[in-house]
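Lecture notes, unit on protein representations.

Consider one protein chain, 63 amino acids long.
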Amino acid sequence: MNIFKKITDFLKEVKIELNKVSWSTRQELIGSTVVVIAVTFIMAVFIGLIDIFLSHILRLVFR
């Protein structure tokens, strides 16, 4: 029975701590998601261009 008391105490503490969390609003969450997707896309394009550039350089070097 002691294990069940520990589990219930833990879950009560988790609930108390979750009530202290400052949750983002829907607009903040959408804005942050758009920023993450945009930065990821920009970085993917940048890394892709660098990869193409370095591939051409290596092709010229190893001809």
